[in-house]
Every structure is written in structure tokens, then in C-alpha cells.
Amino acid sequence: MNDWNTQIIEEFRAHHGQVGGRYEGRPVALVHSVGRRSGKAYVNPLAYLPGPEGTIYIFATKAGSPTHPDWYYNLVAAGRTTVEAGAVTFEATVQELRGAERDGVYAEQAEANPVFGEYAKKTAGVRVIPVLALTRI
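The structure assignment produced for this chain is given below.
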């Protein structure tokens, strides 16, 4: 997975936020986090849904795995992050959406990108996939 992420990150940076493969034609951001225990810096390429001015939504799907991805815990613990979107890099606050707000944003992403609906089916009864709002500071 790290090699795959590295390839996506390199392609993203070389092409000002544009990548091919399964991300082609979809908005992708590079989201930075720091390990809660390790203190190690991480960068994860994530599909996102544009929100209101200055906000993007990201989804802790882990491809439908029964557990949340580590970056989710790191971002929630930190409460802020650095985001690379296109040719722009910015600092953002991190807020987890809940209830109807979370459900509406997730449904919008699943409609735009059907694989997110498949991830939700895989996790049904196991976990609710978290949705995080990253709002530019």
C-alpha cells in the first residue's frame, strides 16, 4: 500500500493535483497527518467531496475494511491538518460529521462515486464510515 500511495502522491505533485487510474476525473487531495504514538509524518491521497467554500469532505472507508484507517484517528486527535488540493496547500481544521449531516454528505459522495456505496455495504452492521470536514483556516 505504501508503494501505491507513493506513486499516487508523486503523480499528484507532478501534475498539479491530477491523477489517473481509479482516481481519474475525481477530486483527490493529499492529507497530512502525524502518528498519535509514533510522531511520524504521513501523507494519504484521498478522494474528496467539495463542500461549502473552504471545506472538503473526506471519508474513512479503508476500502470497506471492518476497521477505521489509522489516518482517521490521527486527524481526529490532532484537530487540524495540512491539505494539498490541486496546486494549493492549506491548513485546515478537522471536524467529524454525525447523524443526518454525515449521512447526507456520505450519500452525496456515494452517488458521485458508486464505490463508496459498496464500501458502506461491506461495513454495514460492523461500523459506520466516518466523514470528516476539513475546513480551510
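Interim note for the steering committee: The two ends are 30 Å apart (CA to CA). The longest helix spans residues 99-112.
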